[in-house]
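Deliverable D4.2, example record:
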Amino acid sequence: MPRHRSPRAGRRVAEHRAALLDYAANAIAAATPLSPETLKLLTHLEASAPELGLVGLLPAASTLSTGMLTTGLLDDLSRRMRTRSRGRRPCHGFERRLKGLAELAGLDASSRAILGLFLRDAMLPSLSRLAQCVAETRGNRHAHNLCPDLVAVLTGFDRETVHHALRRQAPLVFTGLLRMDDEYDTLFVPPLILRYASDEFSDADARAALLGKPAAGSLDWSDYAHLGEEAGMVAAVLAGALRSREAGVHVLLYGPPGTGKTEFAKTLARQLDVPLHPVAEADEEGDEPNRNERLAGWRLAQRLTATTPALLLLDEAEDLFADPKHASRVFLHRLLESTPTPTIWTVNDLDALSPAVRRRMTCCLEVKVPPVPVRAALWQRLAAAERVLLPEADAEALAREIAAPPALARSALRAARLAGGDPAQVRRALLGTARALFGESGRAGAPPPAAPCDPALLNADLDLATLAGRLARPGAPCAVSLLLSGPPGSGKSLYARHLAAGMGLEVMERRASDLLSMWVGGSEKAIAGAFAEAREREAFLILDEADGLLCDRAGAVRSWEVTQVNEMLTWMESHPLPFACTTNRSDHLDPASLRRFLVKARFDYLSPAQVTLAFERFFGLALPAGQGVSGCLTPADFALVRRKAELMGQQGDAAALCDLLAAEAAGRRGPARRIGYVAAA
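Output generated by the structure prediction step:
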């Protein structure tokens, strides 16, 4: 593998002469007397004498023969080198940094000396050439890095001491001061450690230089009020861990991309008034880190923060749990149990973590898309930060239309700022990114924009206005289940949203297609998740096209068709908040499901009186007499015709409006009704 070198290495040789003399002395002391290989080593030392500080110490290699290389001669050479080494002034800057690294990692004297050898080998080409020569004289002609045998020779330590210091669990490797390259089975100095040792951080101490600047958050604690009491519990757990310095404390933040997990971690650290240090988000050269590099960076950060209050952040942590062939799950599990500094983990895919890993998390928190009021307020604050004009009404409209997480909102506002800062550009930028993230609709399960609901324009078999009033009154029961059935466009979902608004609840709307899965058990899991999410958000759940979830089990031919209905019935029985199911095909529902609905309302096409009223409300015109038009009309028909009329410029043409309505109603089943009144003959 390529050797990392310090850019300042060239002018550092003279400052390290004392250490170089010691390494050369140790190499001579370990050399074999009367050996041709030892003569080659002396030849190399003679050629490198000016660099290594050996001028005047060595006999001319050309005058020696292997028979002259006695133990006495080698011992005398080694002794003279050590004597000169003691007279050299050591490199105080390097020694100070080496001492700082050793203290942070808890190194003993031998490990500190071994780290010094690795650092100098990476910094000084003359030492690398000496190490290569020693390796070749000992029969290893392919050595390009420091191996344990070579380390033992150059440091003068016995092999057992070196092997003990270079174990994976020993502080040198475990803390990441030295890193193992599994491809080549060699150890090397990470570039960040080398940069610090090479005095590229000026007078910064090791902790500050290696940890980097803490992450700073831009949101307030109140921006995450939608996370509820669980967020407060997470903060309390971390505060207790920081006070007691208890080991093995981990917080898992999970949820879809862009929901603000990383930003919440920063806000959490600011709330606790401690620094948050992101760990190993890139390798030391700015490239993508691999799993081993991330783990090594985390272990080093744990060591660096072991004695000071701090939090660590492992963002997008799925790759750490990918369980590659050579990874030890036991090792990672023990690591989770023993870390001194609390760590916050973020993942987009909870399934990437095994149950054994989840069990070792102190607490887990799902970070969801904020509800509409929080989104609207957040939009305005972010708009102000980006210097984008976004009136309050526009912010609320966008929040209702698109369930954009904070990261998506920030990206859209930034795009709008770059494009000139117009509110319309905010929406265009948001929709483009939202479609890429959530699909063609770009709405991530968000309900459609709210439309006004007039119960007088809804034709049902019970008094809808009275029902809405009773549910909105103080002290009204919350566990209310409604079945709203009837033809498409008759206002079922519109009325359910109207009820939610009257009860002061956020709407959480799901279609059957959102919950049905091609995988066995997937639909049941999605159904349970929808009810659980509605409960956590205290939202009014609306399930559209519910006949797809509650089909009559008598006609089931597959086991999952039965278990899917069973799952729905179980949740309908126990759900503590209001929910409504809408369907166009109530005759297809399982009979047992009908008993679970407290309120059942059948919607129908508009009555003649309601048609007259709707004509006035939607078009601002009186329904003309003499129009011989018949059909089955719904409020949705009037809304659609109004849009068509605006497109065609026919808003004020009552006769044309009647023709458009008749076209919409054509072919529908139901009793024929005339639109307008035929004048008496």
